[in-house]
Backbone:
């Protein structure tokens, strides 16, 4: 898989900031690869990048159109197809992180083939997977886990990888979802593998490595989410992390998408993850807590983080407010 | 999906009794549909049914060849292909419970098409799946869970369903694996769904029902198995069981297929399952324990069951030695 940059980010008809997380991830984490964004008239959100037509983007050197959307069900809306076809006409590859496959839409498949362009389906693993073995691997591993979905696991993982590299350590970000794969150019979307292979796929993502090498592995879902905990548990077992970083977001009252489902406490989340992590790494430790405090002021956020750090005896950071350096000291 | 009986059970080159669990399930639970078995020369195990050639089976009225094997990874071994082709030549449908698809092997696909025969892939769900919702459903649910894979969850579930029906209760067996689907003719192989949909698929298997109806749901894997715990957790959450029956087998020293992985205690297994089950059913109860005591004498088995029942304060049964009636009293 070769992702060809620079990118034009397609926002479709999105009206919700969380629904353009593919575009936002690229804009936030590889802005040097993003020329701008393109949206349909109904769209009401933006990444903040310049608005470009396909023609303008092509003139500026764009190589791929990235479908910037993440919707429930992962479908490709009919309204987007003319834009996708126009991008192919202009000579751009198409990059998608949806469940629906571009290649299953005949008009798109035919035009891509005719033009010799790539249809890259980031969510669909191309590698042959195996069932998990649970055998200890060399090297060091950190996994982010969460109280819920969309609480900042990917941002924390990327921030931590960058901080480690900045500190001169040998570290690799391991992507487990479509946004992380787009940003880093490699990985496996664990929510899209066959269920028997979740932990085996996670094992293959962080293979044996040098004793001083760090794999910083992006978490998925939450052990407390009734829809997605199976993926979270397979990822936890397959990653056999030496350290967990628990991620959390302020201001949530229920699990994402499930109004009836109560939100777990940090204490419950830590215990549930530590108990389960010990199955494949009895020596697992809690390295720290990462909180998305954007729902409150900077000062309130800092006060909340200090309280949490005191309660659990580990550093508590917000990657977007102050960074994650405080975690490094806890990663031996 | 229409399974055409009677069956010829194919054992391939199996050398391990647990590896022919598809064949054994059919021989044990629908013997009236099984004419006999067929094996390659390297095979060292048997279901106890008569050995038949394909020609003999066909003469006796066989309608389908059932691939009786369950291997890690679910592959179709090249050594089996000549037998599959010969069965198609004789006019038999092929029924498989493996991950690998019969239809992906060109020689098999072509011959089946040429002969107008069915290739039935029990493991591959045909229904459209959704993500889990975690919303409480009506009716009553029992789920079997285990210390490990292959400890008797399906046999316990089938026995319990039969015992309930015998006692005049309204009960349905819900198959979650290929063997249960073969025996009952319906179900979803949960280890073969896309990971995002595990708990949603489990929800769809035991829909809203009459308040007095019992769904007796077949468990999969084990929360303590590093390869398969993700499937077990999604199934546990999606089933939202009112009662758990913990299944166990004597004489195991490590998790199935993983020599380095220690076996959990019954106590640990009960706690881990109860903690996780409470996420979608806070009122979940332990109904009893089911132990495969075939590794010891009947008397030793009974003594061990009495000890376990006393320790945990619930009935402890062996479905193949004395049945499961003692569990019924604990299911209100």
Residues:
């Amino acid at each position: 898989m070769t992702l060809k940059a620079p990118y034009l980010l397609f926002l479709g008809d999105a009206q919700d900031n969380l629904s353009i997380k593919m575009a936002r991830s690229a804009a936030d984490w590889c802005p040097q690869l993003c020329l701008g964004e393109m949206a349909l008239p109904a769209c009401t959100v933006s990444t903040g990048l310049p608005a470009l037509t396909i023609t303008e983007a092509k003139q500026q050197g764009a190589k791929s159109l990235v479908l910037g959307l993440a919707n429930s069900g992962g479908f490709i809306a009919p309204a987007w197809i003319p834009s996708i076809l126009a991008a192919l006409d202009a000579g751009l590859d198409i990059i998608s992180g949806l469940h629906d496959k571009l290649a299953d839409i005949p008009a798109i498949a035919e035009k891509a083939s005719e033009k010799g362009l790539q249809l890259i389906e980031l969510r669909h693993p191309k590698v042959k997977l195996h069932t998990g073995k649970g055998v200890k691997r060399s090297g060091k591993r950190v996994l982010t886990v969460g109280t819920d979905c969309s609480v900042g696991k990917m941002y924390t993982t990327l921030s931590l990888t960058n901080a480690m590299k900045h500190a001169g350590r040998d570290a690799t970000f391991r992507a487990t979802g479509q946004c992380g794969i787009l940003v880093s150019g490699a990985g496996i979307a664990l929510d899209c593998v066959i269920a028997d292979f979740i932990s085996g796929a996670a094992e293959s993502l962080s293979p044996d490595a040098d004793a001083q090498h760090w794999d910083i592995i992006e978490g998925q879902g939450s052990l407390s989410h009734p829809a997605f905990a199976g993926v979270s548990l397979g990822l936890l077992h397959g990653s056999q992390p030496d350290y967990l970083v628990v991620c959390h977001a302020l201001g949530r009252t229920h699990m994402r998408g499930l109004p009836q489902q109560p939100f777990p406490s940090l204490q419950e989340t830590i215990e549930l993850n530590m108990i389960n992590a010990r199955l494949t790494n009895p020596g697992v430790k809690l390295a720290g807590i990462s909180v998305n405090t954007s729902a409150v002021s900077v000062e309130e956020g800092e006060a909340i983080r200090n309280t949490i750090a005191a309660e659990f005896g580990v550093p508590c950071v917000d990657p977007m407010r102050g960074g994650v350096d405080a975690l490094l000291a806890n990663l031996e």
